[in-house]
Design brief:
homodimer; about 270 residues; alpha/beta; N-(1-d-carboxylethyl)-l-norvaline Dehydrogenase, domain 2; 2 domains; 10 helices; 8 strands
Chain lengths: ~270, ~270
């Protein structure tokens, strides 16, 4: 049995609480938040507290608060030499106060407030300063069904950055698709199967191999047509820049590509 | 029973052939391609020809060739007053020679050469000059299980453009994610569940509502960190431009957004 205390009440904290609650060999001892209001709906399931002095003993303390608040909260914890981890992609493990045994338990996924999350689809990136602490975090992840990966701070930092590209920026491209279609009275919904298929394709194929379209084909006529249709100057800039980026990746129409492309385009690995 | 002739041998032609073959009330009479080599593997299932003079009678002739070749091929067809359609997102219906009854049968999806495609996930955008021709194309789409939508040339043009954003450009963001992670020895595979979840999210939620992350939060500290990690100048430019685009969409941190955003962010429609 692994005992856990959760600190924070955002999406990550809430989804972790729900997953831990269902897991057989995890017990959540307490849920702390600065304000009780957010976690009050759970008060019949778990002891909720808003005073750090009330914290009980646990195997792992999970700080799931905003990046800026992690260091300070870890400092305020009224004990030492216990395993304290944060859940952030962008914060170093050394930002946790040094009086603790320190680690990171970073779920690489986007959480919605309402939708249920199956933790089978949530890879947990684990980092610990002391090797001995690694196994308990791995056991914690496995108990909720998550794949795990040992990831150092540099790797976690680039994963977080890459996540901005494949999640936030991709979502903004969906948004632009939404704007463009609705501006002509066409339905964005018609694009939804394509959006899903595009994401499914790279589950098996590398993005390099999956690429198609006018930019890759150097189809100047279509590119020109598209730029003419776009009215928003920023959309035009995005179209041009990403077209150039695709062409850099895939080389000229006669087919020169950099070494990275050649080396990675077949990359099919299992998680 | 609807009889069909397919002209062309690319991904769209091949996937359509396979779907038509399975459908109960469709018969493919012939499959034409300029070179027989590509379609030879199908010669036991269907009459294959490389000579337009051999074309038989059919209810619908489907031209699924590259955009540039559509007009000329339609002109070369040795008959008139029959229903001839193309399958392109970017070509007008009037590009088909005027001796024919003309239409468009545009499958809005990305097709892989090898992977099977379930046409339930392939919306067919239909356009015809004569209203009477619409119903046979709709029946054709329904027979292979596809959702259909009446779409005029302007709408089809913007759908095709939007498809470049949500498919080609999105795939390039995946590619950049691949480059960034591998540059630090982190695994791109860790991002795959996130990629899938990002696409799934907008099946229910508008991209506006689904947005999260440092750009939307105006989290300058994280944005600065990310730009520092990025070594590739073009990746930096893409990061900056898409961050700006997100901030234009979502307004300042105090929350001003344009009318379009306010009007569409709740948009949940069914196909």
């Amino acid at each position: 049995m692994i005992s856990v205390v959760i600190l924070g009440a955002g999406n990550v904290a809430t989804h972790l609480f729900k997953a831990f609650e269902k897991a057989e060999n995890i017990v959540v001892n307490q849920w702390y938040n600065r304000s009780l209001k957010t976690i009050k709906p759970y008060k019949n399931k778990i002891e909720i507290i808003d005073d750090l002095a009330l914290l009980n003993d646990a195997d792992v303390y999970i700080i799931a608060v905003s990046d800026d608040a992690i260091a300070e909260l870890s400092e305020q914890l009224p004990f030492e030499n216990k395993l304290v981890v944060h859940t952030s992609g962008g914060v170093g493990v050394y930002d946790i106060d040094k009086k603790h045994k320190r680690g990171v338990f970073y779920p690489l996924q986007t959480f919605s407030k309402d939708a249920e999350m199956d933790f089978k689809s949530v890879p947990i990136c684990i980092e610990t300063i002391d090797k001995k602490d690694y196994h308990i975090l791995k056991a914690l992840a496995i108990s909720i069904g998550s794949p795990t990966k040992k990831v150092n701070s540099d790797q976690r930092r680039v994963l977080h950055l890459a996540a901005v590209f494949v999640n936030n920026f991709t979502n903004q491209l969906y948004r632009i698709g939404h704007e463009i279609t609705e501006s002509e009275g066409a339905e964005f919904d018609l694009l939804k199967p394509l959006i899903l298929e595009t994401a499914k394709k790279v589950q098996e194929l590398s993005p390099y191999m999956a690429q198609t379209g006018p930019a890759k084909r150097h189809d100047k006529k279509t590119i020109k047509k598209h730029l003419k249709i776009l009215k928003n100057e920023q959309h035009k800039d995005i179209y041009k820049l990403l077209t150039k980026s695709i062409q850099n990746t895939h080389g000229t129409s006669t087919g020169s590509a950099t070494n990275f492309e050649k080396n990675t385009h077949n990359g099919r690995k299992k998680l």
